[in-house]
TrEMBL record:
PANTHER family attached to this UniProt entry: TIR DOMAIN-CONTAINING PROTEIN, TMV RESISTANCE PROTEIN N-LIKE
Stretches of the chain forming a coiled coil according to its record: none
UniProt xrefs under SUPFAM superfamilies: Toll/Interleukin receptor TIR domain
Protein's UniProt name: TIR domain-containing protein
Lineage: Eukaryota, Viridiplantae, Streptophyta, Embryophyta, Tracheophyta
Keyword vocabulary terms for this entry: NAD
Stretches assigned to the TIR domain: 11-177
Organism, as annotated: Hevea brasiliensis (Para rubber tree)
Pfam assignment, any one: TIR
Length: 190
């Protein structure tokens, strides 16, 4: 596939997958990644890190090098400091680099993100105690969670079976990447 990443020098990847949890890594995420790869969509997932690489800096760079970030919210996502830091970076890239961000609410309620309630609210309350000396970090995470809830995405409970959800996601990504390539061509970037 002639992707936008091949026409934009800074962008190495078509898609960056942000997720947490072994439970979804071996099921939903692995199926999604396989479907993306079958469509020749160059996808970064943290299992492709080189041994010895510093995780946080490397992941932040990989986010910057991606055209699209797909954020897969599962029950464990907000309990990961790494994921919340990734989410803040993803939204920064959305604002500063016009990166496309696509949220997937996988067996979680998007309304909990909009209102910071339920398990989201519980996790943030825990973080406020844990990070009393750096409350700005928790505020950035809270803001990012509310912002991502405003972005149109997919809610897994509304699309069954899961294979249909994956097909819809891949088709949407494919269309967005092709549109980016057409726009680059129209602007003389290829």
């Amino acid at each position: 596939m002639l992707s936008a990443s091949s026409t934009t020098p800074l962008r190495k990847y078509d898609v960056f997958l942000s997720f947490s949890g072994q439970d979804i890594r071996r099921s939903f995420v692995s199926h999604l990644r396989e479907a993306l790869c079958q469509h020749q969509i160059n996808t970064f997932m943290d299992e492709t890190l080189e041994i010895g690489e510093e995780i946080s800096l490397t992941l932040m760079k990989k986010i910057e090098e991606s055209n699209i970030s797909v954020v897969i919210f599962s029950k464990s996502y907000v309990y990961s400091h790494w994921c919340l830091d990734e989410l803040v970076k993803i939204l920064e890239c959305k604002d500063s680099m016009q990166q496309i961000v696509l949220p997937i609410f996988y067996h979680v309620d998007p309304e909990d993100f909009q209102e910071l309630k339920g398990s989201i609210g519980d996790a943030l309350a825990k973080y406020k105690e844990e990070f009393m000396n750096s409350s700005d970090k928790v505020e950035r995470w809270s803001h990012a969670l509310m912002e991502i809830a405003k972005v149109t995405g997919w809610d897994s409970k509304n699309i069954k079976p899961e294979s249909k959800l994956i097909k819809l996601i891949v088709n949407d990504i494919w269309k967005k990447l092709n549109q980016m390539t057409i726009n680059d061509f129209d602007h003389g970037l290829v």
